[in-house]
Amino acid sequence: MSGSAFAVARRQQQTTTTEAKTAQIEDILVSEKVLAARKTGSVQLSKKLLMIGICNISYLRDLYPATCYNTFLVDGKPIYVLNDVKGTPARKLISLLQSSFEAIDKKYQTRDLSGRERARERH
Fold first, then answer.
1. What pLDDT band is residue 17 in, cutting at 50, 70 and 90?
2. Which pairs from 104-113 meet CB under 8 Å and 24+ separation?
3. What gap in Å lies between CA 123 and CA 57, rounded to an integer?
4. Higher-confidence residue: 42 or 2?
5. Are 76 and 88 in contact (CB under 8 A)?
6. Contacts for 46-50 with beta carbons within 8 Å, 24 or more apart?
7. Would the pTM count as exceeding 0.85?
């Protein structure tokens, strides 16, 4: 093999290697974006389910007047969600839930090695 043919073959090999590495990096970036989207969607779903659960329990326990709830029908079953209106007695519970959701978004909750959760201190 002559020197120029060897150089051409080497350039082709480097180009192929570079293209393969670029494809791998693109795959990693795409998979990270997909995972981030799934995690965000999972957190949003968890927050909605928590809110619906707490609102329905407070409705069944008759903690607030019926005027404090909006009623939605899902598959023919009523779902009760607290109104977010100033002056309602449920305003305190709603603000506590919103604060806890903000803490989840800002990742203030952490797990220590024993598995217990603790609030992360901000410095």
1. low
2. 104/43, 104/47, 105/43
3. 37
4. 42
5. no
6. 47/101, 47/104, 50/97
7. no
Q: What pLDDT score was predicted for residue 13?
A: 62
Q: Are residues 84 and 94 in contact, defined by beta-carbon separation less than 8 angstroms? A: yes
Task: Write out the two tokens for 80.
Answer: 């009760």
CA dihedral 14, 19, 20, 26 (to 10 degrees): 150
Sequence-separated (6 or more) residues with CB below 8 Å from residue 69: 55, 59, 80, 81, 82, 83
| CB neighbour class for 49 (10 Å; exposed up to 12, middle 13-18, buried from 19) | exposed
Nearest-Å Rg of the Cα atoms of the chain is 27
**Considering all CA atoms of the chain, what is the largest pairwise distance in Å, rounded to the nearest integer?**
91
pLDDT tens, 18-32? 666 666 666 666 666
The answer to whether residue 75 scores a pLDDT higher than 60 is yes
Strand, helix or coil at 109?
A: strand
